[in-house]
Amino acid sequence: MVYNWLINIQHCLLCDEPCDGHPLCGPCEAELPWLDGRCATCAVPLPTRGLVCGECQKRPPSYDHVEVPWRFAFPVDALIARFKHQARWPFGRLLGERLALHLQHAFTEGLPQPDLLVPVPLARRRLRQRGFNQAQMLARWLGGALKLDGKFVKASEATTDLYSQTLHYGYGVFEGIRAYSTENGTRVFKAKEHYNRLKNSAVLVNIPFDYSTQELVDATYELLEKNNLTDAYVRPLAFCDPNMSLSKPNNVSIMICAWEWGAYLGDKQLRLTVSSFCRPHPRSIKIEAKVCGHYVNSILATSEAKEKGYDEALLLDSDGYLAEGPGANLFFEKDGVLFTPQLGNILPGITRATVLELAEKHSVEVKQGLYKPEVLASADSAFYCGTAAEVIGIESVDDRDFPKNWNDSLGKKLQEAYSQLVRNSEKTLSTAH
Ligand code: PMP
Predict the structure, then answer these.
(1) Ligand 1 pocket, residue 329 CB under 6 Å
(2) Is 290 marked active-site?
(3) Contact 347 CB / ligand 1 (< 6 Å)
């Protein structure tokens, strides 16, 4: 039965006749026991519409309205029984999706849209016997079909549960994405790559993630349009349900916010200091995942650097090799060759990958490896790169200036190429959306 949801040629779940892409064929759909006349309050069947039954008039119930598509008659009663008592979930899913269609129609006719769905709780003993909560499953299918999650809310009006695992343990994953105003309108740079990384981050740390890259890309464009944003920073965050235990969550939500943002670190070149904090060891965390909690390390390093009067920190890995910045990857130039720390102890930056592509295009040789800070100290020039920072030159590390003029460096050449790619080129279009 489950395969019915997966195969191309669908058969009607009720009469088994072939039907194109729908779980029910037209005739079976029409023969469902549609409820027409009903009490406007409790939905008990009545001969005509728009009336309130005697019972509700005598003793008005505590609820305002019950919305019911069908009478409890064949085949709906049989579907419910098979779903509930025989665990035949495709029938439940069918009911959930038909119910969603009915509600969508009712919304267009003026029924107020709900803010959330609350499944009726199931007694513990019954839950143990049955092994699943049919109301919760229905609510999930219904919520998915109604896209209740896909709402736009003002940041100041948004609410979240204070018992979220993300708030307490930093157990969530996020992305930093940029949108640029281009000749072809607003373009989100490498949108797919960022949402793929978001999903990968979630998978790496066992956070369930049911969102498709395409729906998140589409939601991002919609968000930017609604807020009239063109040059903007986009921040998606997948956060966990309330759960105070140290176990993986059952459910997550995703929010995407965006704000206008010009250059992050400015046009000037950076004065760095080697941080007293090292990057977390890859055996302590999943270093290649962009996990909220990892950023305490970045905040500590940045704050320390700023307190010492520098612009930004440079972090080593736990073995003392060059790693990366608190939110950017490192490149340096020596004798016409570019060097960058290899993957393994760093976040695999999407800008880093783009710089590698651009370097190849411009026939610049790049070596990836493990390098000690002494190697950087003898370099000709260096730069950081990241979505927010883009490509930005480094003037000095711990007050030792790089000898090469930034304008003559490979970094400058790649900075220009990057700036062109994100803002102007056709390639932005094909890779971004
Ligand atoms: N390293 C770290 C620690 C970061 O937070 C970031 C920013 N996401 C980067 C590198 C650069 O990654 P990207 O180019 O994908 O923005």
Answers:
(1) yes
(2) yes
(3) yes
